[in-house]
Write a structure and sequence with these properties.
With 143 residues, the protein is mostly helical. The chain has one domain. The longest helix has 36 residues. The chain is elongated, with a radius of gyration of 16 Å.
Amino acid sequence: MGPLVLAVAYIPLTVLAVPASVLTLGGGYLFGLPVGFVADSIGATVGAGAAFLLGRTIGRPFVVSRLKDYPKFKSVAIAIRRSGFKIVLLLRLVPLLPFNMLNYLLSVTPVSLVEYMLASWLGMMPITLALVYVGTTLKIFLT
């Protein structure tokens, strides 16, 4: 039941744009690499999808108003129109780009929900795996 609770905890944190790195580390610490990785990966992806849908629907005016400060984002939207899956995947692979911010920014682009979810899931895997692994090593220092 614990891994399911961990995965579900991601949803409100992601929608509220709260960094969930502690949950990812905790998944490794509490459940080990395989189970922690699966729970964290599913939770982060579902949470990203929930934030994406919120930004695409009732949150759209707010997101669009914030984009006025980032005129270069129009280039990203054009690239997504041409190669949505690939651009989302590449953006997710860059750990310097804030996970929560991308959920909302990408919600106002023409990428489909299916492409967004699959590319996000695959693109978040490396950093999720790394953080879960670090969480597993914390047992050495904390016990």
